[in-house]
Structures are given as structure tokens and as C-alpha cells.
Specification:
With 373 residues, this protein is an alpha/beta fold. It has one domain: Alpha-Beta Barrel (TIM Barrel), CATH 3.20.20.70. 59% of the residues lie in helices and 11% in strands. The protein is built from 17 helices and 8 strands. Strand 4, helix 8 and strand 5 form a beta-alpha-beta unit. Helix 7 crosses helix 8, helix 8 packs parallel to helix 9 and helix 10 packs antiparallel against helix 11. The longest helix has 34 residues. It starts with a helix and ends with a helix. 47% of the residues are buried.
């Protein structure tokens, strides 16, 4: 059995963090589903920029849509929506088998709307209607405006993937928005048995940011202090994630949540995102192995999925060492590294990264549109 399939035995779903027409036409996604147990797909503007701008897979579609395209954004959406629809069809058996709790594909609202509540609501509703598939997750960033949108959209029965989560306090707000949304949907007569959602908690970027600050402090330290700082390298991301999962277990418990469970509700699973290892000094599958646990998702870029298939170990480690994780983050604070500042900057940087990728995507789409015309 594929090592990736072993994750499902531990209650974790393997999703692929990649999407493109080549992946669909070649049958590669279908093979990942059948051979490796892939149970979902995530996308973002950077992924679509590479797929559309970096291949010839969309030449026929561009010739079809470009002559009537009013602008580059409209053209991009025609291409992306078709990919999302096709991926949703590949994953539909998983969706049906899981009774609507897995087998999803994600499509993100424009990053330009990250701080625009009204615009986010309108675009989420429009994209959901255009895709027209029950196993679609609309991705909304975890900004203040995004969290307000989450409660509203879940309250309308829409399934949401909350993206760009780094901070524990932001995660709690997102989970509570999901719960409040389900309460609204139930009060309006909605069927909670088909409501689902994930909270995408980012991992690798935390270590990159924290390690950068640690290296500066290590260079200025000596003796036991230096050794203590060195022991913190590469530990912040997993510690942060384990504490987020602990909070997940606390929030999706108690009388308020059980009242929704009685109506058919399922939890908003934690999805581990940005799980590709960026530091070659660390184990390349660490952000998969250390975060295996029930009711979770790990969305992996292709290289990480390949590495785990080759040598990954699927053991339930997510709930181990939670006290040590809390102590690790306290040690970072004591060393003068503020996780609040780190995660706040990561959210801002993430929004900028996706916005830049989206602008680049639109520019390359406009170039292709002009060439076809």
C-alpha cells in the first residue's frame, strides 16, 4: 500500500496542493486518487500562474475564449473554472463515499478583495454558482474582513476553505466564525449534514521567519545561551501547529458544539498548508510526519507527496509533546521573538505574495489574449 494511503488510516486526508490542465488531461490526478488515496485538491493564484503562464496546455481554450473575453480576469476565470470543474468530477466519488465531508477542490477569491467584505461575499457567491459543483470549497483569507465573510457564507450553506492562517488567536476566531455560521444556517432550516469546511494553517513559513531571527541572535550569543537558542531552530512551526490542533479539540467540544452535532454538523477540519520543506537541513517530510492526526488534512506540493511516498512514516504524532510545544513557544518569546509579530507579518506577506502572483497571472493571460486576437 502507498505510504500516502496510510495517512487515511490515521484519520488524515492527503490533498494535492497543485492543479493544472496537464494534471487533469494526463490522468495524473485520477491516478493519485486511485493509487495514493488523494482525497482533495487545493489551488491558489501562484499555482494557476504557473499552470496557465508556464505551459501550452491552455492553447486551445485561449483560442476559444480570447476573442470574446472582455478582460484578462474574465478569461482567467473561464480557464480556472473549467479546471476546478474537471478536478471536482475526478474527486466526486470521494465526495460521495465520504458523504460530503471530503473529495473537495478549492478555488480562491481574488487576493485584491482580502480587505473588502462586500466584494468577497459577492465574488464567493458568483464563483460558487459558476463552478456549480457540490464538492467546491471557496478559499477566503483569514483577514478581519475575511472572517466576517466566513460566518456569513457558512450561514448561507457555502463550504469554505479559510486560507493564510498563521496565528493561534486568528485560528480561534475562524473556528468560532464557522460555528456561528452553522448556527445561522441551521436556524434558517439548512441541512448541516452537507456542510463542511477546512481551516488552512500554514506551517513551513513559520520556521523560515523564526529561524531567520534566531540565526541573528545565535551569532551574537555564546556558551549555554547560544546552545539554548540553537535548540529552538526548526521547532516553531510544528509547535505552533500542535497548539492550534489542541485548540481545535477544545473548540469543537462542549454543549454549543454538541447541539450542532445533533443536527448533523461536522467539524471544520484543520488543514496543514505550506508543508513543503524549505530548509534542506531538515527532514523533507517533517511537516507531514509530525502533524499526522485525526480529523485533519495535509495538502502537499507534488515534491513533498513524492518524498512521503518514498520514505514517509504515518504515525499519530500530532497530539504528542503538546506541553513541550507550549514551552518551545514560550522559550522563543523569552528570547525576544514575538510570535504575534511573526505571524502578523506572515499574513501580510502571504497576501502580498498571492496578490503579486495574481497580477502576474492576469498579465500573462492578457498577453495570451492579445496574441490570439
Amino acid at each position: 500500500m502507498s505510504r500516502l494511503k496510510e495517512l487515511h488510516k490515521q484519520g488524515q486526508s492527503f490533498w494535492l496542493d497543485n492543479l493544472g490542465r496537464g494534471l487533469l488531461r494526463s490522468g495524473a490526478l485520477a491516478r493519485l486518487v486511485s493509487e495514493d488515496g488523494a482525497r482533495g485538491v487545493t489551488s491558489n493564484p501562484a499555482i494557476f500562474e504557473k499552470s496557465i503562464g508556464g505551459s501550452s496546455d491552455y492553447a486551445d481554450a485561449l483560442r476559444q475564449f480570447a476573442p470574446k473575453a472582455p478582460d484578462a480576469k474574465w478569461l482567467y476565470e473561464q480557464l480556472a473554472v473549467r479546471d476546478i470543474q474537471d478536478a471536482a468530477d475526478v474527486l466526486r466519488p470521494v465526495y460521495d463515499e465520504s458523504r460530503g465531508q471530503d473529495g473537495f477542490v478549492s478555488l480562491e477569491v481574488s487576493p485584491a478583495l482580502a480587505h473588502d467584505l462586500k466584494g468577497t461575499l459577492e465574488e464567493a457567491r458568483r464563483l460558487s454558482k459558476e463552478v456549480g459543483k457540490p464538492n467546491l470549497l471557496i478559499k477566503v483569507p483569514a483577514t478581519a474582513e475575511g472572517i466576517s465573510a466566513i460566518e456569513q457564507l457558512v450561514g448561507e450553506g457555502m463550504n469554505i476553505n479559510v486560507t493564510l492562517l498563521f496565528a493561534l488567536d486568528a485560528y480561534e476566531k475562524v473556528a468560532l466564525a464557522y460555528i456561528a455560521g452553522l448556527e445561522k444556517y441551521a436556524a434558517a432550516g439548512g441541512d448541516l449534514r452537507r456542510s463542511a469546511g477546512v481551516a488552512s494553517f500554514f506551517v513551513s513559513r513559520v520556521d523560515v521567519a523564526v529561524d531567520e531571527q534566531l540565526q541573528v541572535k545565535i551569532a551574537a550569543a555564546a556558551g549555554p545561551q547560544k546552545q539554548a537558542l540553537e535548540m529552538l531552530l526548526g521547532k516553531a512551526a510544528i509547535a505552533n501547529a500542535k497548539l492550534a490542533y489542541k485548540r481545535y479539540q477544545e473548540l469543537f467540544a462542549g454543549e454549543r458544539w454538541q447541539a450542532l452535532v445533533a443536527k448533523g454538523a461536522c467539524t471544520q477540519r484543520v488543514l496543514w498548508a505550506s508543508t513543503g520543506m524549505k530548509n534542506p537541513a531538515y527532514r523533507d517530510v517533517a511537516y507531514v510526519e509530525e502533524l499526522v492526526g485525526p480529523d485533519t488534512v495535509n495538502t502537499m506540493p507534488p515534491a513533498t507527496a513524492d518524498a512521503f511516498r518514498d520514505h514517509g512514516v504515518a504515525e499519530p504524532r500530532l497530539t504528542r509533546g503538546v506541553d513541550e510545544a507550549a514551552a518551545m513557544l514560550k522559550a522563543l518569546e523569552d528570547a525576544g521573538i514575538s510570535m504575534q509579530q511573526v505571524t502578523g507579518k506572515l499574513l501580510a506577506d502571504g497576501l502580498t505574495l498571492f496578490s503579486d502572483a495574481f497580477e502576474k497571472l492576469l498579465a500573462s493571460t492578457e498577453k495570451a489574449r492579445a496574441a490570439v486576437r
